[in-house]
Amino acid sequence: MTLVKTIACSVALMALAANAQAGETLDSVKKKGFVQCGVSTGIAGFSLADSKGVWSGIDVDMCSAIAAAVFGDAKKYKVTPLTTQQRFTALQSGEVDVLTRNTTATISRDTTLGLVSTGINYYDSQGVMVKKSLGVKSAKELDGAAVCVQPGTTTELNLADWFRGQGIKFNPVVINNPEEAMRSFTSGRCDGFTSDKSQLAAMRAAQATPDEFDILPEDFSKEPLGPFVRQGDEDWFTLVRWTLNAMLEAEEYGITSANVDEMTKSDNPNVQRILGVSGELGKGLKLDNKWAYNIIKQVGNYGESFERNLGKSTALKLERGLNAQWRDGGVMYGWPVR
């Protein structure tokens, strides 16, 4: 066998071994008795621990929903807070089973990291926040400004692309931790702080005087955020993807955590399939047929999760916008559970 063929065979065997190992995620999760999820180190509305160490947020709900699907118990999960620089390594190494962290789906991440996006649970865009006292109404007025940004993110690249496209200059102040970046911004080290607009809204809401800050109108990018898993594990990938779709479909058909038991009596065949009243759809996921019922009963549908963590009753007071159901002017569109 030639050296070239030997190397090619070795690479192929390594790939097969990696895929075989990756394919055991669901079995591994069931064996240890919980789902290990990678989340952010603390972003209100997405993943944030309270004074008692209890985590909440739309990304934590996603993790909890996966646990409900697998175990029938939404509490059988643990979270690992990860910085932007730690998140991919933690998933690649198997430290976490799934990354339910505000992470942007991009082609390079799907093709170079050995990871893959399973769907979008929040459509966002990048912007920049400034102090009102700066007197700036548009990001185009920030020529020569110092801007706080986190490294190793699409945010860092988008910032450079946008300013280059506008023909204006800026001075990046690279800070790894978002809380530290916000402190640097409020202390005057930076003229602006750039991140996803949802994160900027969360940071602003956490300030003693939130009205002193403006999020400028420009959108620097599209930021489709959602869970990631390792490549080569179709069972786990499919399970995570359909967990999200079940929450979206439930909202579309008006199935909530409050009425899910009553909805099991519905004559609607779509509702019957979602709730496992008819069909054997759970078998294809290697789950109980009530997997989606358990998600909705214990965690809620997508709309419930959004309103509980990000909506008008929260400090963030975010509108649904693009994250509304497709019939309501948004782009959230659950795939058919059938």
Automatic annotation (TrEMBL):
Query: What keywords would UniProt list here?
Result: Signal, Transport
Q: Does the keyword Transferase apply?
A: no
InterPro entries reported in the protein's UniProt record: Bact_solute-bind_prot3, SBP_3_CS, Solute-binding_3/MltF_N
Question: What positions does the domain Solute-binding protein family 3/N-terminal occupy?
Answer: 34-263
Q: Name one GO biological process term.
A: amino acid transport
Q: Which Gene3D superfamilies match?
A: Periplasmic binding protein-like II
Q: Where is the signal peptide?
A: 1-20
Q: Does the keyword Iron-sulfur apply?
A: no
Pfam family for this entry, one: SBP_bac_3
**Per the similarity annotation, which family is this?**
Belongs to the bacterial solute-binding protein 3 family.
Q: What is this protein called?
A: Amino acid ABC transporter substrate-binding protein
**Source organism of this protein record:** Alcaligenes faecalis
The lineage, from the top, is: Bacteria, Pseudomonadati, Pseudomonadota, Betaproteobacteria, Burkholderiales
